[in-house]
Structures
1.
Amino acid sequence: MNNTDQDRKKAWKLQQKQLARDAFPIADALLESLFDAVDACVEEAGCDHTLRFTTVWLSDQQQPEDKVIAWLREHGGFCDCEVLANAADHWERNR
Ligand SMILES: [Zn+2]
């Protein structure tokens, strides 16, 4: 692989990251609190295969539920534990 290819690959990766970041539904710091809160609840009470802790946090914090949940689902977060396993992982990699 020559330098140009590497540069192009690097640029492409950065662009993908930027696109992923642009699609974050709420501020980075808020996503961090969301994942922290859901993590604490799942650890304490387990996942009941719904988004109950996610939904409670979103309504407590008055965040746009539909928008955030659509984004979580898009990244494999169909219940609280999947939010942590999949959506939080996607966020970690691109934030
Ligand atoms: Zn689950």
2.
Amino acid sequence: MTTFVDRVELHVAAGNGGHGCASVHREKFKPLGGPDGGNGGRGGDVILVVDQSVTTLLDYHHSPHRKATNGQPGEGGNRSGKDGQDLVLPVPDGTVVLDRHGEVLADLVGHGTTFVAGQGGRGGLGNAALSSARRKAPGFALLGVPGEARDVVLELKTVADVALVGYPSAGKSSLISVLSAAKPKIADYPFTTLVPNLGVVTAGSTVYTMADVPGLIPGASQGKGLGLEFLRHVERCSVLVHVLDTATLESERDPLSDLDAIEAELKQYGGLEDRPRIVVLNKVDIPDGQDLAELIRPDLQARGYRIFEVSAVARTGLKELSFALAGIVAEARAAKPVQEATRIVIRPKAVDDAGFTVRQEADGLFRVRGEKPERWVRQTDFNNDEAVGYLADRLNRLGVEDQLMKAGARAGDGVAIGPEDNAVVFDWEPSMNAGAEMLGRRGEDHRMEAPRPAAQRRRDRDAERDDAQQAYDEFDPFK
Ligand SMILES: Nc1nc2c(ncn2[C@@H]2O[C@H](COP(=O)(O)OP(=O)(O)OP(=O)(O)O)[C@@H](O)[C@H]2O)c(=O)[nH]1
Ligand SMILES: [Mg+2]
């Protein structure tokens, strides 16, 4: 028997972006021909895709660490680095993706449905792309951004049209085995089925799937027997089939009280109330079973159930059952809107996608959060002064410096960009643009020799901003 794995922890790591290249074009008689460093390639994504030929999560149980390839660094001569390859991970239909805290990130139903579990990092711009009218020959390039790393939990909720429920040994697995090509284990002891079986049934032109779940007993909701854990596999079914044993040897049981007991457990589990139900009276090949079936039929009919008398062993009543189920399934399918394969892209929630926040913490540190500032920091080679200057320009352009000023930051204060566990911390040195006016007023800006008139300062600042903005707009191909 193949192992059935329906819950795994998966650690995905998307590819890192390749670093941009800082290079200067050289030719004979033309030693400084301008910047020609190419951009780094994008890191590959890790993508989960529903593949109907995959039925368990076993592969991920065996190797739970998956990484997409990195983007290649850019090179001189304006050569861009190659993009990393996306890593496509096939998952069974009905896989639910949860984060570490159990929150549902995606519910993957339907062949081809896709979820980007980890986004590849952007490649860094090379110095060719970073050059502008103001910055003719940048001596730096941007670093590639690390790929997104994430721990997710994959949970399989089998997508079966028909779910068989009932006491242990009622004959659920036997029914699947005679209605489909599946060959589940069948035995005369309770709890033979430890994990759900899935079979494909063909009735006329309708093809549908049927799953059983391990037998339920009273108290399953309190964990008796195998508990209700496996009921998640029937959550998506269109119809529930009560398989009742008409020939049980246990004296305190009979099909009607069995039905009540199972219904009580289903109710405990919840969420299945709206599903249509039918009743299958199994084992009518046994004379006592046949008698009992006839005896309880009126009662069941009074409760509004459609009833099918079958024998999985003698193979009687099966055709009527499978065609009736096909009818219900077809109806349910017609009622459901057609689900299109979707590419769901879930990104980690940025504090504020459009901007950033500045907040002073108890210890006096100013913390800046935001998708852009945090990415820009990761793209910066802090060993290169020019690159750090460029970062300052970008932050300034976004208004980070202004906000820091507003929040009360002064030269020399600590500023952290990023989350607590992964931030770049530095002593703030306000650049001219942001700091001039205020620092000028306070008379603290030691870098300013002759104070410019306010109007001039404003004009200068605007000009610089426009320039920088233009450079950014023109040359960031990832924007
Ligand atoms: N006589 C007779 N025996 C049957 C019939 N269907 C199933 N059985 C027997 O009942 C026993 C249990 O059958 P299974 O199909 O394993 O029952 P199950 O409902 O899947 O049981 P669990 O997996 O334990 O929940 C086996 O010995 C079967 O051969 C039937 O129609 N007639
Ligand atoms: Mg079974």
